[in-house]
Protein backbone atom coordinates (compact mmCIF):
# COMPACT_ATOMS: atom_id res chain seq x y z
CA UNK A 1 0.00 0.00 0.00
CA UNK A 2 1.51 3.31 -1.05
CA UNK A 3 1.96 6.13 1.44
CA UNK A 4 1.07 9.72 0.71
CA UNK A 5 3.76 12.15 1.75
CA UNK A 6 3.22 15.91 2.03
CA UNK A 7 4.79 18.04 -0.65
CA UNK A 8 8.11 19.56 0.43
CA UNK A 9 7.87 23.18 1.51
CA UNK A 10 9.46 25.85 -0.65
CA UNK A 11 12.49 27.31 1.08
CA UNK A 12 14.43 30.51 0.57
CA UNK A 13 17.44 28.50 -0.62
CA UNK A 14 15.15 26.76 -3.11
CA UNK A 15 13.93 30.11 -4.46
CA UNK A 16 17.50 31.38 -4.83
CA UNK A 17 18.49 28.18 -6.63
CA UNK A 18 15.51 28.08 -9.01
CA UNK A 19 15.67 31.76 -9.97
CA UNK A 20 19.45 32.21 -10.08
CA UNK A 21 19.43 32.77 -13.85
CA UNK A 22 18.03 36.11 -15.03
CA UNK A 23 16.97 34.69 -18.40
CA UNK A 24 14.90 32.03 -16.65
CA UNK A 25 13.26 34.74 -14.52
CA UNK A 26 12.26 36.70 -17.62
CA UNK A 27 10.69 33.68 -19.31
CA UNK A 28 9.01 32.59 -16.07
CA UNK A 29 7.37 35.98 -15.51
CA UNK A 30 6.29 36.19 -19.17
CA UNK A 31 4.54 32.83 -18.88
CA UNK A 32 2.87 33.84 -15.59
CA UNK A 33 1.78 37.19 -16.97
CA UNK A 34 -0.01 35.70 -19.98
CA UNK A 35 -0.97 32.30 -18.58
CA UNK A 36 -4.66 33.00 -19.34
CA UNK A 37 -3.92 34.08 -22.89
CA UNK A 38 -1.97 36.84 -24.59
CA UNK A 39 -3.44 40.33 -24.72
CA UNK A 40 -1.23 43.11 -26.06
CA UNK A 41 -1.17 45.97 -23.52
CA UNK A 42 -0.91 48.46 -26.42
CA UNK A 43 -3.55 47.35 -28.94
CA UNK A 44 -5.30 44.40 -27.28
CA UNK A 45 -4.16 41.96 -29.97
CA UNK A 46 -4.33 38.25 -29.14
CA UNK A 47 -1.59 36.90 -31.40
CA UNK A 48 2.15 37.14 -30.85
CA UNK A 49 5.55 35.82 -31.86
CA UNK A 50 8.10 34.86 -29.22
CA UNK A 51 11.55 36.44 -29.53
CA UNK A 52 13.48 33.91 -27.46
CA UNK A 53 16.88 35.56 -27.90
CA UNK A 54 15.59 38.72 -26.21
CA UNK A 55 12.95 37.12 -23.96
CA UNK A 56 10.15 39.18 -25.51
CA UNK A 57 6.73 38.67 -27.05
CA UNK A 58 6.06 40.62 -30.28
CA UNK A 59 2.45 41.47 -31.05
CA UNK A 60 1.49 40.42 -34.60
CA UNK A 61 -0.88 43.38 -34.96
CA UNK A 62 0.97 46.47 -33.72
CA UNK A 63 4.48 44.90 -33.74
CA UNK A 64 5.12 46.10 -30.16
CA UNK A 65 7.65 44.18 -28.09
CA UNK A 66 6.38 43.20 -24.63
CA UNK A 67 8.84 42.22 -21.92
CA UNK A 68 8.15 40.47 -18.63
CA UNK A 69 8.05 43.82 -16.81
CA UNK A 70 6.59 46.16 -19.43
CA UNK A 71 3.75 48.14 -17.86
CA UNK A 72 4.25 46.57 -14.41
CA UNK A 73 5.62 47.95 -11.13
CA UNK A 74 9.01 46.44 -12.05
CA UNK A 75 9.29 48.29 -15.36
CA UNK A 76 12.51 50.31 -15.83
CA UNK A 77 13.63 49.58 -12.28
CA UNK A 78 17.05 48.25 -13.37
CA UNK A 79 16.98 45.71 -10.54
CA UNK A 80 17.54 41.97 -11.19
CA UNK A 81 14.23 40.12 -11.45
CA UNK A 82 15.36 37.45 -9.01
CA UNK A 83 15.45 40.11 -6.26
CA UNK A 84 11.81 40.98 -6.94
CA UNK A 85 10.86 37.30 -6.84
CA UNK A 86 12.80 36.63 -3.62
CA UNK A 87 11.18 39.68 -1.99
CA UNK A 88 7.71 38.49 -3.01
CA UNK A 89 8.48 35.09 -1.46
CA UNK A 90 9.67 36.70 1.79
CA UNK A 91 6.52 38.83 2.02
CA UNK A 92 4.19 35.88 1.41
CA UNK A 93 6.02 33.45 3.70
CA UNK A 94 6.31 35.75 6.73
CA UNK A 95 3.41 36.33 9.10
CA UNK A 96 4.92 39.63 10.18
CA UNK A 97 5.78 42.53 7.90
CA UNK A 98 9.17 42.45 6.17
CA UNK A 99 11.20 45.58 6.90
CA UNK A 100 13.64 47.27 4.56
CA UNK A 101 16.49 46.42 6.96
CA UNK A 102 15.56 42.71 6.93
CA UNK A 103 15.30 42.76 3.16
CA UNK A 104 18.64 44.58 2.83
CA UNK A 105 20.36 41.79 4.74
CA UNK A 106 18.53 38.98 2.92
CA UNK A 107 19.25 40.33 -0.56
CA UNK A 108 22.68 41.81 0.09
CA UNK A 109 21.69 45.21 -1.32
CA UNK A 110 21.73 48.77 0.00
CA UNK A 111 18.97 50.04 2.27
CA UNK A 112 17.83 52.42 -0.49
CA UNK A 113 17.37 49.54 -2.95
CA UNK A 114 15.57 47.38 -0.37
CA UNK A 115 13.20 50.23 0.52
CA UNK A 116 12.52 50.92 -3.17
CA UNK A 117 11.62 47.27 -3.87
CA UNK A 118 9.30 47.09 -0.85
CA UNK A 119 7.66 50.41 -1.74
CA UNK A 120 6.95 49.29 -5.30
CA UNK A 121 5.52 45.91 -4.23
CA UNK A 122 3.33 47.39 -1.48
CA UNK A 123 1.98 50.00 -3.87
CA UNK A 124 1.14 47.27 -6.40
CA UNK A 125 -0.60 45.24 -3.67
CA UNK A 126 -2.67 48.28 -2.69
CA UNK A 127 -3.71 48.89 -6.31
CA UNK A 128 -4.64 45.23 -6.68
CA UNK A 129 -6.67 45.29 -3.47
CA UNK A 130 -8.73 48.22 -4.70
CA UNK A 131 -9.96 46.16 -7.67
CA UNK A 132 -12.27 43.90 -5.65
CA UNK A 133 -15.10 44.36 -3.14
CA UNK A 134 -15.99 42.18 -0.18
CA UNK A 135 -19.37 40.50 -0.46
CA UNK A 136 -21.61 37.89 1.12
CA UNK A 137 -21.39 37.96 4.92
CA UNK A 138 -18.99 40.68 6.07
CA UNK A 139 -17.91 41.26 9.66
CA UNK A 140 -17.20 44.94 10.31
CA UNK A 141 -15.35 46.18 13.37
CA UNK A 142 -12.85 48.73 14.65
CA UNK A 143 -9.42 48.39 16.23
CA UNK A 144 -6.56 50.62 17.31
CA UNK A 145 -2.82 50.75 16.66
CA UNK A 146 -0.15 52.25 18.88
CA UNK A 147 1.45 51.99 22.30
CA UNK A 148 -0.72 52.01 25.44
CA UNK A 149 -1.63 55.49 26.63
CA UNK A 150 -1.68 55.56 30.43
CA UNK A 151 -4.08 57.98 32.06
CA UNK A 152 -5.72 58.94 28.78
CA UNK A 153 -8.97 58.07 27.04
CA UNK A 154 -9.62 54.51 26.02
CA UNK A 155 -11.95 52.80 23.58
CA UNK A 156 -13.29 54.92 20.71
CA UNK A 157 -11.93 58.09 22.37
CA UNK A 158 -8.34 56.87 22.41
CA UNK A 159 -5.50 58.83 20.81
CA UNK A 160 -4.24 55.66 19.11
CA UNK A 161 -4.58 55.28 15.33
CA UNK A 162 -8.14 54.23 14.58
CA UNK A 163 -8.69 51.39 12.09
CA UNK A 164 -11.77 49.90 10.44
CA UNK A 165 -11.51 46.21 9.55
CA UNK A 166 -13.89 44.28 7.28
CA UNK A 167 -13.72 40.49 6.94
CA UNK A 168 -15.76 38.47 4.46
CA UNK A 169 -16.82 34.95 5.43
CA UNK A 170 -18.25 31.99 3.56
CA UNK A 171 -21.49 30.22 4.44
CA UNK A 172 -19.68 28.08 7.01
CA UNK A 173 -18.39 31.17 8.79
CA UNK A 174 -14.77 30.68 7.71
CA UNK A 175 -12.73 33.82 6.87
CA UNK A 176 -12.00 34.54 3.20
CA UNK A 177 -10.78 38.10 2.50
CA UNK A 178 -10.01 41.10 4.67
CA UNK A 179 -9.74 44.85 4.11
CA UNK A 180 -8.64 47.48 6.58
CA UNK A 181 -7.91 51.18 6.63
CA UNK A 182 -6.82 53.85 9.09
CA UNK A 183 -9.46 56.54 9.56
CA UNK A 184 -9.55 59.95 11.27
CA UNK A 185 -12.58 58.98 13.39
CA UNK A 186 -15.26 56.32 13.82
CA UNK A 187 -18.31 58.44 13.06
CA UNK A 188 -21.16 57.03 11.03
CA UNK A 189 -20.27 59.00 7.89
CA UNK A 190 -16.69 57.67 8.01
CA UNK A 191 -17.80 54.07 8.54
CA UNK A 192 -20.35 54.44 5.75
CA UNK A 193 -17.74 55.76 3.33
CA UNK A 194 -15.45 52.81 4.13
CA UNK A 195 -18.33 50.37 3.60
CA UNK A 196 -19.31 51.87 0.23
CA UNK A 197 -15.70 51.79 -0.97
CA UNK A 198 -14.94 48.24 0.14
CA UNK A 199 -18.17 46.23 0.49
CA UNK A 200 -20.51 45.24 -2.31
CA UNK A 201 -24.04 46.69 -1.92
CA UNK A 202 -26.53 44.15 -0.58
CA UNK A 203 -23.97 42.29 1.53
CA UNK A 204 -24.96 41.22 5.03
CA UNK A 205 -22.87 43.04 7.62
CA UNK A 206 -22.20 41.64 11.06
CA UNK A 207 -21.22 44.35 13.53
CA UNK A 208 -21.46 45.31 17.18
CA UNK A 209 -24.15 47.66 18.46
CA UNK A 210 -22.10 50.85 18.12
CA UNK A 211 -24.30 53.52 16.56
CA UNK A 212 -21.73 54.47 13.91
CA UNK A 213 -21.68 50.88 12.58
CA UNK A 214 -25.45 50.56 12.66
CA UNK A 215 -25.67 53.68 10.49
CA UNK A 216 -23.70 52.03 7.67
CA UNK A 217 -25.39 52.99 4.40
CA UNK A 218 -26.39 50.71 1.50
CA UNK A 219 -26.00 47.35 3.24
CA UNK A 220 -28.14 45.00 5.27
CA UNK A 221 -27.19 45.04 8.94
CA UNK A 222 -27.05 41.87 11.01
CA UNK A 223 -26.02 42.32 14.67
CA UNK A 224 -23.04 40.21 15.76
CA UNK A 225 -23.17 38.74 19.28
A few lines on this structure:
This protein has 225 residues and is an alpha/beta fold. 33% of the residues lie in helices and 20% in strands.
Describe this structure in words.
It is built from seven helices and eight strands, in the order H-H-E-E-E-H-H-H-E-E-E-H-E-H-E. The chain has two domains: 12-129, no CATH class; 137-223, 2-Layer Sandwich (Nucleotidyltransferase, domain 5), CATH 3.30.420. It is an alpha/beta fold and 225 residues long. It is globular and about 65 Å long.
Secondary-structure blueprint:
Blueprint (H helix, E strand, L loop, with lengths): L11 H7 L3 H12 L14 E4 L4 E4 L5 E2 L14 H13 L6 H8 L3 H19 L7 E9 L15 E9 L5 E9 L4 H11 L5 E4 L3 H4 L5 E4 L2
Parallel strand pairs: 4-7, 7-8
Antiparallel strand pairs: 1-2, 2-3, 4-5, 5-6
Helix pairs in contact: 4-5
Strand content: 15-25%
What is the domain tally? 2
Largest sheet: 5 strands, mixed
Low-confidence stretches: 221-225
The total beta strand count reads 8
Mean pLDDT over the residues = 84
Fill in the keyword field for this structure.
alpha/beta; globular; disordered C terminus; single chain; 225 residues; 8 strands; Tnp_ISXO2-like; 2 domains; Transposase_Zn_ribbon; 20% strand; 7 helices; Nucleotidyltransferase, domain 5; ISXO2-like transposase domain-containing protein; 33% helix; three-stranded antiparallel sheet; five-stranded mixed sheet
